[in-house]
Amino acid sequence: MAIPVIDFSKLSGEERAKTMAEIANGCEEWGFFQLVNHGISEELLERVKKVCSECYKMEREENFKNSTPVKLLKEIAEKKNGNNVENVDWEDVLTLLDNSQWPSQTPGFKETMAEYRAELKKLAIKVMEVMEENLGLPKGFIKKAFDGEEDSAFFGTKVSHYPPCPQPELVNGLRAHTDAGGVILLFQDDKVGGLQILKEGQWIDVQPVPNAIVINTGDQVEVLSNGRYKSVWHRVLATPDGNRRSVASFYNPSLKATISPAPQLVENLKQEVDRTYPKFVFADYMSVYAEQKFLPKEPRFQAVRAM
Ligand SMILES: O=C(O)CCC(=O)C(=O)O
């Protein structure tokens, strides 16, 4: 079993219908798929790899050596009591938002990452349009829902490194979770694997495909699609060698947006009354998620319904 790899360029040719169906299958059956020929130039992707790796080396590696996961792993390993390191991830995280402070010492980092984010945002919108068409929703429906009445959708980028771990059996690279938000576009390492999804009770590798963009859907797309597109559990394993790099971009609702199943996808009034998915303000969902990220999503939907 392997995550579907889909040629996005075929959307504009004779194979459009087949490609639309492949993306529908990726969303309905997998919750994850990989896009190749997605229109982001190889030249830009090569620069992203270079500046992110250089930034880690120049501005972050030293701090990781003194970080909480490194200290906790050392303590647990010395005790040899059979326990694992809980509540932390073997991951270095750098978050890029339009208005956050960006690393400044790595040549070309800001320019390259700003260009990359602009391209990825456009790709996210194209992917959402395909989802809308497959779901029978009007063009722009998801974007409009995520913008809310008086704001615009959130777009954040998380640059992660998962450095080599001396005892990968004792700690996770990133603990299993489903994503809180909308559509996630991940540019993962070409060589060092570790990302896995849970499918039918089995953990499956998201196989590295050079220069592909991995797409997955979060809890808010599950709600909007009234459960047609389920967010899927995924995790990153720590590995003994190789420093895995990943760049994840999150197209999420604005905190003020109200999210509920699209009325077109709620089949009848009875279903509307017994809704599995509540209607809520995304900021409320995020306050629950902050406490429950690594737990099942269903109680999150219940908690936010009660708010
Ligand atoms: O680093 C990865 O490959 C996955 C990251 C991820 O799942 C997340 O940040 O939510």
TrEMBL record:
Its EC number is 1.14.17.4. One of its GO terms (molecular function) is 1-aminocyclopropane-1-carboxylate oxidase activity. Belongs to the iron/ascorbate-dependent oxidoreductase family. Gene3D superfamilies: B-lactam Antibiotic, Isopenicillin N Synthase, Chain. It is an enzyme of class 1 (oxidoreductase). Keywords: Ethylene biosynthesis, Iron, Metal-binding, Oxidoreductase, Vitamin C. It comes from the Eukaryota. Pathway: Alkene biosynthesis; ethylene biosynthesis via S-adenosyl-L-methionine; ethylene from S-adenosyl-L-methionine: step 2/2. SUPFAM superfamilies: Clavaminate synthase-like. It comes from Juglans regia (English walnut). PANTHER family: OXOGLUTARATE/IRON-DEPENDENT DIOXYGENASE. This is aminocyclopropanecarboxylate oxidase. The keyword Iron applies. Residues 149-253 form the Fe2OG dioxygenase domain. One of its GO terms (biological process) is ethylene biosynthetic process. InterPro entries: DIOX_N, IPNS-like_FE2OG_OXY, IPNS-like_sf, Oxoglu/Fe-dep_dioxygenase_dom, Plant_2OG-oxidoreductases.
